[in-house]
């Protein structure tokens, strides 16, 4: 099983877009080790679009001038750091950036990637010829990857268009995007994370994960698709939700130059443990209350030791809204005493029965681990 | 304004279907007075389908043999009780029961109804000729009713097919069905009431009301469309929600022979006062928590005196689920002391701040009136 827990890593797109090059990838791999990301579980260093030359050579994809050492050498470099290497292609005739893509070349390209030592393929959905149905194209690449004999994690990126949660696992996907692209704004996090992921939890599990797109934590308004940037409080809510969702944790910021708040968020080992819990259940929305048009939702993720990770979110524009979770709503007997631990403050909040209430700041979260006494 | 607050009355369909006759209507009008329904505000006695003869006479609708005295005499009888009289037709060529209907006869039929002293028209949507768009047909009858000069309450019944909340007020409707037919079962009440009415509250107000269909309270499994019947606890939840929704309160049971629990529900003047509150705002779902696939929702309806009517519903199959409402979620300052009154027990539950929690029985409700001290 390639992905018994949600994949963790970094992808070049959010910050670098078309400006990615060999040096950035190497320095990113270096930073994985130096910044403690590798130790925390981040593993895949993935190049997104724009690594490709504009023409194939002898029918094969080749890198452009920004990767003078070639992809195999770059993969070797990443492997040398004890990390894994990922790359990008597209199910259509061209990538979203207009580079040559894998339509009709699935077997050749899969073999090329395997020859280079690729461990991860993100497979996009631009320039699919009109009249061609997309899901079978994802199946073809899945078959082609399998035929290489090399274990390659298959990340389907068709933006949730054809309900990939219903068919992508059978196409060989380990993860599949559920929506269009995220960007570094609260509106985007709210819409993609808190609205569009509702109801999908039963489709995910070990080796097959819903993917609500990469993290924008730490972008601070930078990157080619940025639309203003989130606050650190908002990044914390975003990361907490992705952990509860058992989403792949693919960092999108420049990890060579992380802000201190971004490091603290991305390296919160207690939150990561929720994401990586071996039970592999995706969290779900237990309920929410509306305050005008903005909710205070509660999301919960059952964990292997019998405890439940719970996010009490205040998505309103007002500070310190009360947000409660009743034991009953997370399938715990109301009379059962439970320890409550705050996974951001890293402190115990005592033993409680019946329910627990927090008052998160506006756009903020209380991320808790609720453990029935006697369990865990 | 014909309907400054939601219309209240009775309709023959749920219990009598095609078996309606003159005598039943008269006895129903009698029962309105004798049973206290009139005093409680119930006003319209409405005959549904199957009053019509199979053929028009001189182009006019005429009643069938079950109404030997004619419709005008029957309307006079109802008026004689201080009540109002309603009738039924359909926008297609035939009614849903196959009787002649008003397509192409809108002006003639509207004038017939006005001549008879009709005060209320329910207008259905069967046998609309293929290719004919329905909303303009509702507009035509609305215009025809207006042209008679008689005030006739116009009840549009196109089952929510073409989002009537968006156009029915402009077609002259005072109320419009938002869904297909209800039946006397918990599943039907759950689906039509608790699921399908979410998000519609902003479309309703004085003289234009969303209509989630007639009440099944007191049917106890009788009636031609019954599917098992609800319990009294379920009837109470159903009635509470309809009051919070500012729905028309059209009784569907046989009011000549109401059970004692049905009388208590239909004549709960404190619940009716919520429905008839002059502010005329439709209640909305404040939020809900899921327990497996069944929720514990909270619905709230702001009232004219500054208090808020709140329904804490336990729609799960387990008894005594805790259901809470926070003052914040109903736009009251958490520190503000509020009196809480139970509108079914008819008793004060004390003065509270921050929130109030109840533990309703399975499928049950706590219907409250929460009044900030100093208001009301």
Main pleated-sheet profile of chain A: 8 strands, parallel
CATH class of the largest domain in chain A: Alpha Beta
Strand content of chain A is: 15-25%
Order of helices and strands of chain A: EHHHEHEHEHEEHEHEHHEEEEEEEE
CATH superfamily of the largest domain in chain A: Aldolase class I
Mean pLDDT of chain A: 96
Looking at the chains present, what oligomeric state does this protein adopt? homodimer
Structural class of chain A: alpha/beta
Please state the CA-atom Rg of chain A, rounded to the nearest Å. Answer: 21 Å
The strands making up the biggest β-sheet of chain A line up spatially as 7-6-5-4-3-2-1-8
Distance between the termini of chain A: 26 Å
Describe this structure in words.
2 copies of one chain form a homodimer. Chain A has helices spanning 13-16, 22-34, 37-40, 71-80, 106-116, 134-148, 186-195, 232-244, 260-266, 269-275, and strands spanning 8-11, 44-46, 84-90, 120-124, 153-156, 175-177, 209-211, 249-251, 284-291, 294-302, 308-314, 323-326, 338-342, 347-352, 355-358, 364-372. Chain A is of the alpha/beta class. Chain A folds into 2 domains: 8-275, Alpha-Beta Barrel (TIM Barrel), CATH 3.20.20; 284-372, Golgi alpha-mannosidase II (Immunoglobulin-like, Sandwich), CATH 2.60.40.1180. In chain A, the strands form 3 sheets. In chain A, strands 7-6-5-4-3-2-1-8 form an 8-stranded parallel β-sheet. Chain A has a 6-stranded antiparallel β-sheet with strand order 9-10-11-16-13-14, covered by helices on one side. Chain A has a two-stranded antiparallel ribbon with strand order 12-15. In chain A, strand 2, helix 4 and strand 3 (84-90) form a beta-alpha-beta unit. The radius of gyration of chain A is 21 Å and the shape is globular. Chains A and B meet through strand 9 and strand 10 of A and strand 9 and strand 10 of B. Strand 9 (284-291) of chain A pairs antiparallel with strand 9 (284-291) of chain B.
